[in-house]
Amino acid sequence: MGLLSSTVSVxxxxxxxxxxxxxxxxxxxxxxxxxxxxxEEDVSEKSVGWTSFENHFRPDFEGSSFVIGTHMVFCLxxxxxxxxxxxxxxxxxxxxxxxxxxxxxxxxxxxxxxxxKEHVTNVLSLRIPATPSIYELLWHYEDKSLWFFSxxxxxxxxxxxxxxxxxxxxxxxxxxxxxxxLTAGLSEIERDALSxxxxxSFRE
Length: 204
Fold this sequence. Notes:
Layout (H helix, E strand, L loop, with lengths): L10 E6 L6 H11 L12 E6 L15 E2 L2 E10 L4 H19 L6 H18 L3 E10 L4 E4 L4 H15 L2 E4 L2 H8 L4 H8 L9
Antiparallel strand pairs: 1-6, 1-7, 2-4, 3-4, 4-5, 5-6
Helix pairs in contact: 2-3
GO molecular function: exonuclease activity
InterPro entries: RdgC
Pfam family, one: RdgC
């Protein structure tokens, strides 16, 4: 469920930090340096990077292609390869039987079994396509706010890590407590009172 969907899941962030001038060029550079890397012909199990809002599979951050009005709009893309354990087990059994037949032995050592499993996993990783997940985001730089269109814990953690790496800025998730602390303009007395609040259970 993304930016243009009728139903969306959103995590709001406050962006801490400043970018070097010119801002748009600095953002473009951060996006290009951390663009998604394809792993179709690689043994890697996961790839995380930025991609374009309009074309998820041909990232283009030239010029101001990622700028819409006063906002920056682009996507976090996470590609994962998932090999079913039963497939790995099957091919390990085949490879083990082949090696035993070649050597005339009845058993393999633990290190040999581990080597076979690693070899099988690498070979299968080259064959299996990666499954992409796309998460859109909307960043208002001057307002220091960012909307990330996902509530998935893993995706949010990947965003926070990649954003810090790309732009040397940190993201702070906004929920009732942090919104009160960071955006409500509270006095010191009110901040102290807020820190002492505890959750209320509404269950009977």
